[in-house]
Amino acid sequence: MRKFIVSLILILLFTPYFFFAQNTNITNPNKSEDEREKLLKELEYDDLTPAKYQINAKVFPDKREIICEEILKFTNSSKAEINKIMLNLFYNAFENKHTTFFKESGIFKLSKESVAKLKFGNIEITEINIISRSEKFSKKIKYISPDDNNSNDKTVAEIKLDKPILPGNSIWLKIKYKLNLPQIFFKTGQANNYLFLSHWYPKIGLLRSDGSWDIHQFHRKDRFVENFADFNVRITIPSKFKIGSTGTVIKKEEDGKGRTIYEISALNVHDFAWVAFPYFREIHKKIKLKGNNFETDIIILLSPGHRSAEKRYIGATVFALKYMSKNVGAYPYKTLTIVDPPLKGFNSAGYKYPGIITAAYLKLIPYALKITEMSIFRGISGQYWYGIVTGKDLNSIRIEDGVATFFEMEIMDSYFLNRASFFNSFFLNVFDWELKRLIYLKLNPSSRPEGVAMGFLMNKYYFSNLNFNISLLLRSLKNYLGKDKIFGFFGYYFNRFKFTPTSSKEFSRSFNNYFGEDYSWAFDQFAKQYPLLDTAVHSVSSDQVAMRKNIFRNEAVFVRKSGYFPVDLLIRLKSGKELKIFWKEREKWKKVTFDDTSPIDFAAVDPGFKIPLDINLVNNSKSLEKKMSVFNRLALKFGFLFQNILGFLPL
Fold first, then answer.
1. Are the CB atoms for 590 and 564 separated by under 8 Å?
2. Which single residue of 300, 466, 503, 559 has CA 20 to 30 Å from 312?
């Protein structure tokens, strides 16, 4: 932090443009032409940080608007000349009912009266120029829709440059803009005097090594590929508000006009979010985490009437941070803010951003339902597998979110031990991984994503594809390889690729190299092709062997109806004797025949239920008895019916 402040001071001494002031100009009459040229050259070659943001935001809650000035440093990290800049203006997703976001949200289902009552919002750029050049672009902004050609969508802006940026060179953009805050439809906006701001500033797109841009519109069910950057943000807001954010508050002062200025620093993060609300109760809990030589400050922003959630938040947050630090790697930031939204802002609950999590707590939800803990565990696992290790393509984002869900399930299991981790009551117990499996059963193979957007048939297929089949694959691999080995890999992968957007190929290549074996059969199936896995017992039989008294010829046939995963097989005889086989071969069916003094009682596939990817558990076992009691028939039918009912519940 000290080095950052010293560097900032040095930069300020060289150019007045880094002060957030009006009417700044690069020309200094006291400098010669040579000195000015030297200064401009220093701006072009600043340092190796790909992006830096300095944002000055003045908040006017009564007007539902924020006036901002942003200085954005962008470095051409590619091997080609860049003749255009691509910016994401995500707040324009909330501009009207015709944007891609709202079309995918199903707003067309609302009545005209309901739509008329909605409070929309947007981002208005009033000025944009390059500090070190005399180029101004306010009238040159072109809005494009690379994903769906929606002319009403303005979430991607293209700006043509008069002079290209050479490889390794940097420019500093100065952008003035105004935010008109929408109601909180999704993640961000304003609800009365509660504000949550995400995706709120002009953000540079991701530049590929060949000089092309990886940039997309704001989709209802999508994740963004983003650059890691340094942020220095100043927020001026009426003093009655309390705020929380990504990063650390390094300065707080009153302006003498009833407003407070917060200066916040966040280093090596790929996004910046913040919250403001007058009635937060701020709670601090400092802990020392494994691998760090500093204390991490956990900040809980508790809404009124939620005192009963305080211990749950602190207990879950401390446990999850220690769990991830022990099993994966050190949490690298000095603060983590947990936001407890009030009821009016609940549409912002359940999301994660670097250094800040919006939890989910409602007083009416019984303690038996562990949604509050789940939101914390999901948010903290997401700090690692999104905040620190992040994907740079569609498949890598799916893997990354799947890993986050996998660790959420692991933390839930460890935190609640032998108790059900999602719903725990005297009449029903559901574990978190069981919930994920039930939603996974909704997976429709024809709903695979196409292109860059999450082009699923229905929202539920987004979750099945993006999170749960990957997380259940990883749980199956954990049971196959062993917990210590799979955690060892994730620790290795985390420490190798943190703060670097990675590809799905890099993930699978690292997995194979770490274990010294080719696991493409797993990732090609369940991370790319999306098949359903179904392994079953086809038949069992026992026949008396002719001319051999009390000897039975026993036979069990196992089949792979769909997909492939190595699996345990079990044959139990009526005498109690068991035959255990590990079926690793890629064959479609396997026949096991042997003689014994006892006939078969039953045969089973995956008797320890180590492969939650299997979509049909009813056919995983078969008894020799051809006639079943009325009770057994009813139990079997009820089990089948119950599984299918749960599979279609709107979870």
1. no
2. 466
